[in-house]
Each structure stands twice: as structure tokens, then as C-alpha cells.
Design a protein that fits this description.
It is a single chain. The chain is mainly alpha-helical and 197 residues long. The protein folds into 2 domains: 131 residues, no CATH class; 53 residues, no CATH class. The protein has a 3-stranded antiparallel sheet. A hairpin with a 4-residue loop joins strand 2 and strand 3. The longest helix is centred in the first third of the chain and has 40 residues. The chain starts with a helix and ends in a 6-residue tail after the last strand.
Length: 197
Amino acid sequence: MIVRFNRRQTLRAILALVLSVLSLGLAFLFFRFALGSISRSFDLDWEGRTVVVGSILIVLLIFIGGLFSYSRSHGHSELTESDLLLDSLDSSTGGSHFVGHYARRITGPAYFLSQLFLAGPLQMGKAVSCLRSRIAVSRDLETDLVSTLAFAREKAMWHGVAEYSGREKYLSYLIRMGFVEYSSRKGRVRFIERDCV
């Protein structure tokens, strides 16, 4: 049971790491292209190395900001929660309807790019969390988890955490592994029917 959980967490961490690297790579390519276009458009004499270093610095700032956001338990935001949605425009006049139409044409791609760039640090944080949530493999711990799980299965309905006196650590592991559901509002747990082997 512990080995399978650890294997699943490791695979999730690897997938999150691959997604993080892919997202950061796409962000780097985007900003390299954008800085190169700015350099050509304004006849700036930026060398290729300046564009690459500038792109790396921008991606690094995005990465640090994303990790800070992840550490504060913030993740991806929905378009309706972001500042990019201009829902408050009065569309009763032709001018405001016209402005709203063009604003939505800009906010959609801007929102997509912001979420794509933010995916790098958020997936990196998720990968680290998955690796840190693994449980040390021990035959005694496995036995205690199986017995605590059997106790939870006998109850079959929501019941109080106080019934696990002396087994709180095992209960928290079972909650982490997804075998037991926990309601923090009521302080109650229940068994979730899953393959426990």
C-alpha cells in the first residue's frame, strides 16, 4: 500500500516536472521572440546574447513570482477572477460595445499566456510537494495502516476522529493516501471504497 502510493506520487512528480520544464521553455521562446521583435522594430542594436539574457531574466522573475504565489496557496486563476476580464463595460452605446469587443480579443490571449507562464513554477511546486508527501516504507507502519484502515472500513459511515485515539498518525497517512475522507469542518472521517492492495 505504501509502495504503491509512493510510486504514484513519484510518477505525478515526474509528470509535473516535465510540464514545468515545457512551460518554462515555451515562456523562454515567447520572450526571446518578443524581445527580438522589439529589437528589430525599434532598430535597437541588441545582440543575440542580450535577447537571450533578457529572456532568461524575465522567465526567472516569472518563476520566482509563481513560486511565491504557490507558497501562499494560490494557483491558476479563472478568467472571471482575473483583472483581464472587462465585464463592467456598459454595452448600451456603440462605442463601449466596440471597445469591449476589442478588449476581449486582447484579454483572451493575454489570459492564456499568463496561465501558461504561471504553469512552470506551479507545476514545479506541485512536483516538490508530491515528492515530499511520500511515506517512509516500513513493514510495521504498513501493518498499522492496514489495521487502521480495517477499523475505518468497519464504521462505513462518517464518524469522529476521537475514535482513533493513539492512531492519529496512521489516520493522517490514510487521509493523505486517499483511503479515508476527512471533513475539517465537522472533524469527522469516513472510509472511501478503493482498491487497498
